[in-house]
Design a protein that fits this description.
This protein is mainly alpha-helical. The protein has a three-stranded antiparallel beta sheet with strand order 1-2-3, covered by helices on one side. The protein has helices at residues 27-67, 71-107, 127-137; strands at 3-5, 11-15, 18-22.
Amino acid sequence: MTIDFNDDGTITITLADGDVKLARPTFGQYRQLRNAWRATAEAIAVKAAPLHRRGTDLRDRMEAARDGGDDDAADRLAAEDRQAGGEFTDWQEGQVAAWLVEAITLLSDRDDVDADGLPAAAANVTLPGDMVTWWKSVPLAPGRNRPAATG
C-alpha cells in the first residue's frame, strides 16, 4: 500500500484493487475525523497504561526468576508478556484500520472497503495523525477562494 499526500490537499491510497483518492475534507469533515482520531488515540492510551504496568511487573518477576535459577518460570513469564503485547497490538491496529475505513468512506466514493481488506501498512499507528496534520497544514489550492497575497 502506498499513501501519497498530494499538494492539493487530497490523499491517494493504493489498495489491492486500485487507488482511492480522499478528497480534501471540509472543515466539518476534518473535525469529525480529527475528533474520531482523538477518541481512538485516547482509547489506545487508556488501554495501554495497565498493560505497560503489567509488562513491567512481568519483566521484574522474570528477572527475579532468572536470578533465582528458575529458567522455566522466567520463560513462562516472557511468553505471557509476549501474548499480552500481541493482543494489544492486534487491538490497536484494528482501531487504526477502522479509523482509516471511516476516512475512506467519508472522503471518497468507496463504501465497500473494510478493515480486514486493507493492506497491513494501514495498521501504522501514526497514519491517522499524519493525515489530520496534513489536512490542517497543506496550503489552499489555487482558486477564487484563496486569499490574495499581501505584500
